Amino acid sequence: MFTRPAQRISPVDLVHCAACGAPLVDGYYYIQGRHERYCRRCMTDRPRCDSCSAPVGAQHWRLHDGRLLCAQCHATAVYDLAEARALYDQTVGAIVAQLGLSLKVGVAFRLVDAPTIAQVRASGGVHLPEEKTLGLYQRSGHVRAIYLLYGLPKLTFRTVVAHEYAHAWQGETCPLLTDERLREGFAEWVAYRHLLYLGCTKAAEQLLTSNHPYRPLLEEVLALEGRVGPVGVVEHMLRAGRGG
Question: DSSP code of 48?
């Protein structure tokens, strides 16, 4: 996420800060992907939403593990296990239908809090970029599981499921894959393709405009797709994952 100041606003176009309600007379700031405008003080001093990074207003929610959610993210946040399971199944079903990434063994699904996902990450020696961990796939012995944070907005939830399910597919069908750039780039590509499948073109575009460390890896796989097509990308993964 990033912010940037805008030009000075004329009195005719005067708007108010979405967090504190103060008139924006000296320009404004905004969060990538959000239309709300914020004053400098709120951008500097107010706590941020753990989901979208926007300054939280008077109406916000603190989850039991300490995370803060703004009103907009809370409105679609996934808290209920049954709802999470249904969204998970819908996402996996869509990925199988769109890209053919089916599993023979399958993978368990776990909805957890932030301390639990941090513990799972540490116990598995998972190496991820220094970003907030929203989800991860881990295999421990015969147990294969995808862990997702509770309280993620629905679209974020589905995006993370798609990414982690791609890792589960890699674990089962690409056992010799050692190229970490290809591994993460493909997982992000699956998430990108899933967003397009859902018709969420703006969210998909944000994967290509954000400062996330996976973005250049996604761009590499999209370049590959431009040469060989979506089916060719999957075939490339299979060859790479089987030592071909």
Answer: B
Name the amino acid, one letter, at 72: Q
Yes or no: say if 39 and 8 are a contact pair by the CB < 8 Å rule: no
Could you give phi then psi for residue 201, rounded to 5 degrees? -70, -35
Report the percent of the chain where pLDDT is more than 90.
72
Residue 11 confidence (pLDDT) above 50:
no
Parallel, antiparallel, or unpaired: how do β-strands 29-31 and 3-5 relate? antiparallel
Q: What is the pLDDT of residues 108-123, one digit of tens each?
A: 999 999 999 999 988 8
Burial class (CB within 10 angstroms; exposed 0-12, middle 13-18, buried 19+) of 71: middle
β-bridge pairing 108-112 and 143-149: parallel
| Residues written for the chain | 244
Domains of the chain, with CATH numbers?
3-76 (no CATH), 79-241 (3.40.390)
44-85 pLDDT, tens digit per residue, is 999 999 998 999 988 899 999 999 999 999 999 999 999 999
Coil, helix or strand for 60?
strand
- What is the overall mean pLDDT for the chain? 89
State the Cα–Cα distance between residues 7 and 13, nearest whole angstrom. 12
32 touches 209 (CB < 8 A): yes
Helix (H) or strand (E) holding 189: helix 180-197
- CA–CA gap between residue 110 and residue 40 (Å, rounded): 39
User: Closest by alpha carbon to 138, among 150, 152, 121?
Assistant: 121
CB neighbours of 243 closer than 8 A, spacing ≥ 6?
A: 176
Give residue 4's pLDDT band: very low, low, confident or very high (50, 70, 90): very low
